[in-house]
Amino acid sequence: MSVPASPAPAAAQRLEADLLLTLTTVIAAAGWIFSKEALAGIPPLIFIGLRFALAGLVLGVFSLPQLRALTLRGLRNSLLIGVLFAAAMVLWILGLSHSSHLGEASFISSLGIVIVPVFARLFFGDRPPASTWFALPLALAGFACLSLEGGFRIELGQWFFLGAAMVFALMFNVNSHVVRNVPVRALSVVQMLTVGVLVLPAGLMLERWPQSWSAAAIGWLLASAVIATTLRFLLQLRGQSLTTPSHAALIMMLEPVWTAIAAAWWFAETMSALQLLGCGLIFLALVVSRWVWIRGLFGGRG
């Protein structure tokens, strides 16, 4: 009896990459749940400062060789990215603290993907792909639909998430143009610790430290730091190392979809027809913005 041939190494590698990156997006979606639950017992700025301080320390333990290889210039550039990352996370956590609908919020946050090439054109003179100018009106229409829910009124949480998306888009561009030859793990450790160093003191000045810490609050904080931040990064890094950037980016687009599903399951969230239309238009904008990569993927070029 013949023995079935084992999968080709390339096929096995692609399968591992797909599984790891899909798991990464699921963990990212779970991170929204962890953070929202943690906010029930921890003020937002204190929470986000503690989350990234803890995550940076844990990741730093696994990244000592990369940190030792970090040059002074690399450290300076990494700190710049860290400041932008801190600003984005402050806007994100404030949006989360004012939001009552995680599924909707996750799609608004994903608008940063569409904004990236626009900022690349404005600040660095890059020529964005033609698909950008088709994706942008779709994204704006989707955001408008979400704003029309309950009358034409943009909620405070939506403004915060939109601001976070813009800062993330700017950070991505600066990261692409400024940070060169910096070990990825070292860069991430510096980013995370910068959030902790900048945001936690601000939180202690502006917010009241909880008088008592429940086991639930501590558990959600640890889950956010260790699972949704450190573990997520390590899995994402491994998955990205096994496939092309375009293929990885396509899988990572699923995060808002998983978040909406997780919110529907955990918080029993539902969406109106207008919200579904808005989220659908935003997701379509994400697909259009990555159309060159999608076409290449199905054309057999990855």
Walk me through the topology.
Blueprint (H helix, E strand, L loop, with lengths): L8 H30 L5 H18 L2 H5 L3 H27 L3 H8 L1 H14 L6 H17 L8 H23 L5 H23 L8 H27 L3 H8 L2 H12 L6 H17 L1 H8 L4
Helix pairs in contact: 1-10, 1-12, 2-9, 2-10, 4-8, 4-9, 5-8, 5-12, 6-7, 6-8, 7-13
Structure notes:
With 302 residues, the protein is mostly helical. 78% of the residues lie in helices and 0% in strands. The chain has 14 helices and no strands. It is globular.
Give a short overview:
The chain has 302 residues and is mainly α. Mean pLDDT is 87; it is low at 1-8. The protein has helices at residues 9-38, 44-61, 64-68, 72-98, 102-109, 111-124, 131-147, 156-178, 184-206, 215-241, 245-252, 255-266, 273-289, 291-298.
Give the domain tally. 1
- End-to-end span in angstroms? 36 Å
Radius of gyration over all CA atoms, rounded: 20 Å
Overall, the morphology is globular
The secondary structure category is mainly alpha
Count of DSSP strands: 0
Percentage beta strand: under 5%
- Uncertain runs are 1-8
Q: How would you state the average pLDDT, rounded?
A: 87
Approximately how much helix is present in the residues? over 70%
Order of helices and strands: HHHHHHHHHHHHHH
Largest sheet: none
Number of helices: 14
Tag the structure with descriptive keywords:
302 residues, 14 helices, single chain, mainly alpha
